[in-house]
UniProtKB/TrEMBL annotation:
Chain segments annotated as transmembrane: none
Name this polypeptide is given: 3-phenylpropionate/trans-cinnamate dioxygenase ferredoxin reductase subunit
Gene3D superfamilies xref list: 3.30.390.30, FAD/NAD(P)-binding domain
Organism: Alloyangia pacifica
Residues in FAD/NAD(P)-binding domain copies: 6-304
Superkingdom of origin: Bacteria
Lineage, top ranks: Bacteria, Pseudomonadati, Pseudomonadota, Alphaproteobacteria, Rhodobacterales
Reductase C-terminal domain ranges (all copies): 326-408
Keyword terms of this UniProt record: Dioxygenase, FAD, Flavoprotein, Oxidoreductase
Amino acid sequence: MTRPTTLIVGASHAGVTAAEALRRNGYDGRIRLYSAEAAPLPYHRPPLSKAYMAGEKSAEQIALRGAKFYADNDIELLTGTRVDAVDAGARSLRAGGETVTWDTLVLATGARARPLPGCEGITSGLHRLRDLADADRLSALRNRGGRLVIAGGGFIGLEVAATMVRSGLEVIVIDPLQTLLRRALPADLSALLLARHRAEGVDIRLGRRISRVIAEDGALRRIELDDGCRIDTEDLLVGIGSTARLELAEQLGLATHAGGILVDRHGRSSCEGVYAIGDCAAQNNRFAGGLARIESVQAATDQARAVAAAICGKDDAPSASDALPWFWSDQYDLKLQMAGLPDAAATSVMRGTPGDGPCSLFQMQQDRMTASFSINRAGDHVHSRRLIAQGARFDISLLADPEIPLTKCQLTEAAT
């Protein structure tokens, strides 16, 4: 009897987790894992803007799994191998000059950095941060010194700013919003991060846009802002969001929504035998209130485990559609951890004092917590993740007291 074949395109958190979960679920077919990157082993992405860029960790130290893992689990890892074409009718894939047929195809193609308009033709000094090679180019600036301008005050831009200013670079962050991280953080915590970055020497300019990028012979020389300010710089990091990689999905004729591949609660796409996970997938999430493309390690791994279970016929396994999104960001000695999605209509309860030691902010709809934001209070984060997911009710008068454990602030057991 011929062994079934599962091909996984993309070898980041989602792809590697899917391969591992297939074996854990008893899948005994062939597994091929394709990575377009030349890096010998798939790796953790979050350290790219922090420990790896700062030279504190090597590529080997941030590998998701060692080479032995792939050999022991009979997972064929093909690095430096770009998938050129897929054919839904033939259920085939072409990569590295070879055509392979599949029984199951898992797309974990991720996302690409959103380009900054007006940068066409620039061949030197324009940076993004999506992979190891990008991080290497940025890390090299630490030895050269000088000025780095960052377009976009999102988490990646701010993490890079923290790393680079500590390495001695002059760092300028340009963001069009008047409030830092306005869509991701409550105002009190946004103000705390803004003050900390400025205290470290980062020049953050809010409410400003880059209107023009000037290059000479393809090399970046300066930028102009919408207020007429000119900034000389040979290096610009663009961190203004991402778009899902949908080229293969388009070849397969897959349905898309919310900028990603439309999948059901088990990760199935509109084409039989084809699944999508990670940053390229758009899936219903009950905490997001509908279809969403949630870019986080947690979402990628939850989706991968659910898809592996579905491939193995275990549709009763937990679905990522029911998982509470959570995120984190490390900037200087601040560990920011978030559970749930920001709720502008919610009431806020602060535990501790921002800027004066660890603190947490809880967003509440009446006596139910909808989201939590913690700085250097890991216990609050861990407990709030579980309690929000369970629909727990709280005595709001107790939540503000940092001496009272979060679990002791409940009014009743979690709702059923």
